[in-house]
Amino acid sequence: MHAYTASRTALSSPVAFEPTLRQPLSFYPASAEIYAHGEKAGAVYQIEFGAVRVYRLLADGRRQISAFHLPGETFGFEADTTHHFFAEAINATGVRVFRVTAGTDMSRQLLPLALKGLTRAQEHLLVLGRQNAIERVAAFLVDMAERQGGLRQIELPMSRMDIGDYLGL
């Protein structure tokens, strides 16, 4: 677990996404789909309030959650023109949707955010592949605390089943 927590400090410094044009807020009730696997991509989403889970349904019907996103975070990055995952509001959630066009100021501004997401995904793979159940839960709680500003009391908007699907338990 040491390798995981030691590398976490590099991610705790925020990378801001500040688009020049403010987009209207889109509201999603709990469990509402934001986008689906196979749908056309081409936008990124910034959470104003609430929380989002990003997941894939496996061939045997199980769900694997790949990420949780919290207020201020940006998600929805795709390498091509279709979504490879589902995104769903965990609770009442407000997001701003930004259409992305290659070569624009916004696309250059999104690169650090996409790389931060890649680093977070790589660390998540390390947790899943090399830690036991207790270490996975501990690493998850540390991550959530750091993402919420290091508070002593953290909010967990997701269910225990969500956490289990995220940690592979």
UniProtKB/TrEMBL annotation:
PROSITE patterns: CNMP_BINDING_3 (PS50042), HTH_CRP_2 (PS51063). Residues 131-169 form the HTH crp-type domain. Gene3D superfamilies: Jelly Rolls, Winged helix-like DNA-binding domain superfamily/Winged helix DNA-binding domain. Coiled coil: none annotated. GO terms for biological process: regulation of DNA-templated transcription. Keywords: DNA-binding, Transcription, Transcription regulation. It comes from the Bacteria. Residues 28-76 form the Cyclic nucleotide-binding domain. This is CRP/FNR family transcriptional regulator, nitrogen fixation regulation protein. It comes from Mesorhizobium qingshengii.
